[in-house]
Design goal:
alpha/beta; 425 residues; two-stranded antiparallel ribbon; 9% strand; five-stranded mixed sheet; 2 domains
Length: 425
Amino acid sequence: MRPLLYLPRHAHHKERTSADRYDCAGAREKADRLLARCRSATFPSFPIAAIAAIAAHNHTAPVPACVAVFRCPDAARIVTMGAHYLFALDLLAPFLPPDKDSKRDIALLRAANLASRRQREDIEDRFVFLVYGACDQESVKQAMCSYGFPGCEVRFVAEDEDLTPDENGRITLTEDYDETIGDDLGRWVTQHHPGSLPLGGILTTDQEELASYREIEWWWIGYEATGGAREWPFDPDRFSQLLPAPHWKRGDAWLEILAKGLALEDMERGDLPYESFQIQVKAAALCEWLHGFDAASGNGFNDFDPADVALALDMDRLFIGYQAAEALSRSDRSPPDECADIDEALQEAVLALTEEARTDVLSALGVMGGDGLLFWTLYASIWPRYDCCLDEAINGLLGLESVEYGEIDAAWQFVQDGWHESADP
């Protein structure tokens, strides 16, 4: 069977640019037309009674919902995040410090220089060097820190292991090497960076800028959200609580990935609630998709609850009704006049919106580098792999060397096709 790594990239993974943004002027015009329709009590494509009932759930004060949508509540303007990379590298004690002007020495110097430049831009990537074998720890630590890596940590493992090279300058490692490095790295990630996402490489949006990092064969790479100045139209902590268990601490990191893919870095929404609503819908769609992978992988069930998500993400019910008017006409889901009550109508409306938003979300996740590397992040978030270098771990999974295809068939099809029947609730 052909290894998964070499399967073609799916069409829904396209590059996003800052030009791929919403027509806010058009959205304002649509909202104006919606206001006129609500005032005239005519809304052919979505029964006005259902819209009014859904909207009423979102506003307790006697203010018409169609007027309230033009306000951007202060509570929804959450300032948070930004992100940095985490890098882990294994090193053999007898070969430290690296020979001056050697390939490794130059690669480390370049990476340290890049890390220092990013630090001046308030992005502090973190580095952990896992030194294996007996050595003079103080001198080795001083040598590694002299490269100038900010956020650098040197950890010593197998400190009693004698790695004296043979007459040819070679070292024979025991079978315990990978496991020992992996155990220590796993503890470091769990204790200090539990909210990090395992990556298969540098994100596509950063590859040119971070080329110096790519010269090193890292043992492990992670991506972690940090304190920053990005605004979200909902509380990111509440978003994290909506995700399946493996991602409860990783919600911020997923939002940063979504922001990268949607080109939201320079977004200034101001008082544009319709654009904020579009971001809320995509966040909801990402939440649903992660629940879907959890089910397809066999790790859990699809526990996505559209009503809870709409509430937690502060999604305006009037906008839900308005957007669902179009989405439901293209969906197999039940229109509101066929639902038992308003709660069911709301659920069907939200599910119709997240289903339509899924394509944009999958396109945004293309910053991972394609289906294979996205699959790696999702799979390794559930079943971490620290006991071998990153390339070996990815090839073991995608090349079907460490797993049988039957074990990951449904999950792989879920990622490649965007959904799979095994992910249905």
